[in-house]
From TrEMBL:
Name of the protein in question: Superoxide dismutase family protein
Family as reported in the entry's similarity comment: Belongs to the Cu-Zn superoxide dismutase family.
GO molecular function: metal ion binding
InterPro entries per record: CHRD, SOD-like_Cu/Zn_dom_sf
Biological-process GO terms, alphabetical: superoxide metabolic process
Domain CHRD: start-end pairs: 38-135
PROSITE patterns named among the record's database cross-references: PROKAR_LIPOPROTEIN
Taxonomic lineage: Bacteria, Pseudomonadati, Bacteroidota, Flavobacteriia, Flavobacteriales
Length: 283
C-alpha cells in the first residue's frame, strides 16, 4: 500500500508538471490579413484583389489576384506614394503579375530605398496606392489600380448636383468620398463634355447666389472625353503669403461653398456647370 501511494504521488507530479509546461507554451501565430479591391483602369477589364498577410517574422506577404490579365504577359506592379488621384513615386516594387495566372506574390519588410522598414501595421496606415501596368515595355498604360492604407475609402460619401449653366447639355454630379485618413476624394462626373476639351474646376467660397466667391480649392480639370475629374483634397489652396489650411471630409460636407466647372483654361468666364455644396445644400 505504501508503494502504491508513492507511485500515485509520482504520477500526479508528472501530470502537474505537464500542465505547467503547457501553460508556458505560446499560442500559434495567427497573423492579420487586409484585403483591398483592385479596379480596372479604363477598358482594360483587369480587376481583382490585393491581400496583405502579416507573417510571424514581421514581414508582409502581398498577393495580387487579378482576372482579365493577358496570357504570356508579365504585368509590372508597384506600391506608390500618395493617392492614385495625386500620383507619386514608387515606394515598393512588387513581383510582376503573371498574365497566365493573374497572380503576384511578394514578401516584404523594407521599402525600395533599402532604409525604411515596413510592417503590416505601417502598411495599414500607409499613404499609398497600387498600380498594375500593361507590360514592362508599356509602363504608361495602367490596367488596374487601388488606393491602400490611409487612402482607403470608408464607404461614406456625399453627392451634389452640378447644373447646366452656359454650355448646353453639360451637367452631372460632384461626389465627396471619405478616406480612412480623413481626407477626401472629390469625384466630378459630367455628361455633355466633348473629347479634346479640358474644363478647369474649383471649389469657391460662399454660395452660387453670392457668386463670384474666391477660390478655396483647385480641383483637377475635367477630362472632356470621359467627363471625369478625381482630386484628393487635404488642404485649401495656399497663397504666396500664407499656406493653405487642413480640410477634412467632415469639414467639406459642411463647407460654405460651391463648385464651378469652366469652359476651358482660356475661357474661365464661361461656366459649363455649377452647384452648391456642404452647408449650402442643407435646407
Amino acid at each position: 500500500m505504501k508503494k502504491f501511494g508513492i507511485l500515485l504521488f509520482a504520477f500526479l507530479g508528472i501530470v502537474s508538471c505537464s500542465d505547467d509546461d503547457d501553460a508556458n507554451v505560446d499560442p500559434p501565430f495567427e497573423g492579420e490579413t487586409k484585403k483591398y479591391d483592385v479596379s480596372a483602369v479604363g477598358e482594360s477589364g483587369v480587376s481583382g484583389t490585393a491581400i496583405f498577410d502579416e507573417n510571424e517574422d514581421g514581414s508582409v506577404t502581398i498577393t495580387l489576384d487579378l482576372d482579365g490579365t493577358t496570357a504570356g504577359v508579365m504585368h509590372p506592379a508597384h506600391i506608390h506614394y500618395n493617392s492614385a488621384a495625386e500620383g507619386g513615386e514608387i515606394a515598393l516594387s512588387l513581383d510582376p503579375v503573371d498574365g497566365d495566372t493573374g497572380i503576384s506574390e511578394t514578401t516584404v519588410d523594407m521599402l525600395d530605398d533599402d532604409q525604411t522598414e515596413i510592417s503590416f501595421e505601417d502598411l495599414l496606415e500607409f499613404d499609398g496606392y497600387i498600380n498594375v501596368h500593361a507590360s514592362a515595355d508599356d509602363l504608361e498604360t495602367l490596367v488596374a489600380q487601388t488606393d491602400i492604407g490611409g487612402n482607403e475609402l470608408t464607404g461614406e460619401s456625399k453627392s451634389y448636383d452640378l447644373a447646366e449653366v452656359d454650355i448646353e447639355g453639360v451637367s452631372g454630379t460632384a461626389t465627396f468620398h471619405e478616406r480612412k485618413n480623413g481626407e477626401t476624394l472629390v469625384e466630378l462626373d459630367l455628361e455633355g463634355t466633348t473629347e479634346g476639351n479640358t474644363h478647369p474646376a474649383h471649389i469657391h467660397m460662399g454660395s452660387v447666389a453670392d457668386a463670384p466667391g474666391d477660390i478655396a480649392i483647385t480641383l483637377t480639370s475635367v477630362d472632356g472625353a470621359s467627363g471625369m475629374s478625381l482630386t484628393n483634397v487635404a488642404m485649401t489652396d495656399g497663397t504666396e503669403e500664407e499656406d493653405g489650411t487642413a480640410v477634412s471630409y467632415e469639414d467639406l460636407i459642411e463647407y460654405n461653398g460651391y463648385i464651378n466647372v469652366h469652359a476651358s483654361a482660356d475661357d474661365l468666364a464661361t461656366l459649363a456647370a455649377q452647384g452648391n455644396i456642404g452647408a449650402n445644400t442643407i435646407w
